[in-house]
Specification:
The protein is an alpha+beta fold. It has three domains: about 100 residues, no CATH class; about 50 residues, Roll (SH3 type barrels); about 80 residues, Alpha-Beta Plaits, CATH 3.30.70.100. The protein contains eight helices and eight strands; from the N terminus they run αααααββββαββαββα. α4 packs across α5. The longest helix has about 30 residues. The radius of gyration is 28 Å and the shape is elongated. One of its GO terms (molecular function) is mechanosensitive monoatomic ion channel activity. This is Small-conductance mechanosensitive channel.
């Protein structure tokens, strides 16, 4: 009987906390947090347009502040509006921890992984990364997942926990510039010095090239189909990762045109 009385008493405490006035304040507070985060993002994008060289730093700041707004703001809202008794907070925290541990273990793992990503920083917002078969730009690091925008303009959502256990490669590691690799194949009897000079001239005259870092080549003999060829692997830097595709397209288009105009021999496929 005493146990039943305790249960009824606890239910009464919970019901008293969630009255109509408190629920209304919680809704208004939630809308305020959402509006605050929305305004922060608008301000951040405005700053990025005015200060493009500080784009990555601004994106990282917005991500961290958004995380703090939602986590600290939600906690402060619950404690400030409901003002639950200390015993109720301890009991609710214990019950919530147990429930999360069993029912939401994957979500909790992603939340913890999100914190690790923010502080360990294997990559940053704005980085171009390769994760498995997915390649693109990190546009957001959230509480539960990382959002990656591919070069085909698809938005891919990846749980944070996967980045803790799997390998991820960052192409620019927080910098605006990034190495872009382009391959060109020519016949074995082609004039290699002439071709290298031609490709170098195209790269350094591209409006997307970052010339403070060197242009380099890796030249080797490879097999394409049934034919042997010389591969020129051109390594150059684009001045902003946003121009990666434009830079590669510009270089490939101009080099291919020059090869055709200058009569540079291409590999001949051997028919069996």
């Amino acid at each position: 009987m005493n146990e039943n009385g305790d249960i009824v008493s606890d239910l009464a405490v919970v019901i008293d906390l969630f009255n109509v006035y408190a629920i209304l304040l919680l809704i208004l507070g939630g809308l305020f947090l959402w509006a605050l985060n929305w305004g922060l993002n608008r301000l951040g994008h405005s700053l990025m347009e005015r200060l493009p060289s500080r784009r990555f730093l601004i994106l990282q700041f917005i991500t961290l502040v958004s995380f703090l707004i939602y986590t600290l703001g939600t906690g402060a809202l619950i404690l400030g509006v409901l003002n639950p008794p200390r015993e109720f907070i301890l009991a609710a925290a214990g019950s919530l921890a147990v429930a999360l541990g069993f029912a939401l273990k994957d979500v909790v793992a992603s939340l913890v992984a999100g914190l690790l990503l923010l502080f360990d920083r294997p990559f940053q917002v704005g980085d171009r990364v390769q994760f498995g078969d997915t390649y693109g730009e990190i546009v957001a690091i959230g509480l539960r997942a990382v959002r990656l925008q591919t070069l085909d303009d698809n938005l891919v959502t990846i749980p944070n926990s996967l980045f803790i256990t799997d390998a991820v490669a960052s192409g620019n590691a927080g910098a605006l510039d990034m190495m872009v690799v382009s391959d060109f194949h020519v016949a074995l009897d082609a004039d290699l010095e002439r071709i290298e000079a031609l490709i170098r001239e195209v790269v350094v005259t591209s409006r997307y090239a970052y010339l403070k870092k060197p242009v380099s080549f890796a030249i080797e003999e490879v097999e394409i189909g049934n034919a042997l060829a010389i591969r020129f692997r051109t390594k150059a830097y684009v001045l902003d990762v946003r121009y990666e595709t434009a830079f590669r397209s510009d270089v490939v288009t101009r080099v291919t045109t020059l090869f055709r105009e200058r009569g540079i021999p291409r590999p001949r496929i051997l028919r069996g």
